[in-house]
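Take a record:
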Amino acid sequence: MDKKYTIKDIAEAAGVSKGTVDRVLHRRGKVSAKSLAQVEKILKEIDYQANPIARNLKNNKVYKICVLLPDPKEDSYWFPAVQGIKNAAKEFKPFGISVDLYYYNPTSKTSFVEKSKEILNLTPDVVLMAPLFQKEALEIFRQCQENNVLVSLFNNLVEAFNTHNFIGQDLYRTGRVAAGLINKLVDADSTIAILHIDEEKHMKLKENGFKDFFKDKEQKPKIETFSFKKANITSFQKASIDLVTATKNISAVFVTNSKTYTFLQAIGDLSKDLTIVGYDLLDENIAFLQEGTIDFLIHQKPKRQAYLGVAQLAEHFLFGKPVPEESLLPIDIITSENVSYYLD
């Protein structure tokens, strides 16, 4: 078994005092060049590995991670993300990692900015965020850089961000996956609708991937893009019904976010002849999937994304692990037959 070396062992082998070894290990105080060389020679010979957790506990160092994400009470997609963050926070709390959650209204830029400023006033070590507002997020990122605060993103990537890491999925690729699924189920002379509900910029990546799938196909379906706001239920329902009834030869609808169920609730029985592909395992979406109205759901794994967001940062602080620039999760296709395996 490998021997566990103490400071006393290292000091005796190097011919120096224990205090000198302590100063070298913790990089504090003055040490002569000769003594430094002697200690470093012994450390290399025994392949000394510091215990960052023990050092962190000894120094009572607490690393503060502030998480900024949309309020799950406003958009239930974010409830699993909150659970992922809480799980990671509980796991790393004993080692000096503090995680605090801050929610902003997903429909309000003002709310996003105000919560961001509240976080920055706390001088955290890192801000982990899921930004919906690109321009405002860039300004927050600039302020974080000025204050030497790390920034990490999950779920939503801001393309102009020169950030330390992103955890999520290749949204462009998920659009191609959706197109491939629909392509197997519809005729080439049919029309496919791409529907953005409460459109956000990242949905365009999915749309682009979807359309690009068909570029090299000899027979291409017609693709039409729609963007609806859900705030006014009456107008949303009318627009949804019009989409189905007024779009010639429509055979499929690709909904680019988790709100597929709102479209299906709006059109009622008009959905029976449509192929439907959407995103995310919300209870309402699962119900439509299990009854056969939704054909496929693409699982974006918000719980896993959020957990990894905290865990990677915690391991960076505790073990000195580099933070990956990009962590892309697999694209899982969920059907009525396998959905039960994905439910907690």
Summary: The first strand starts at residue 63 and ends at 70.
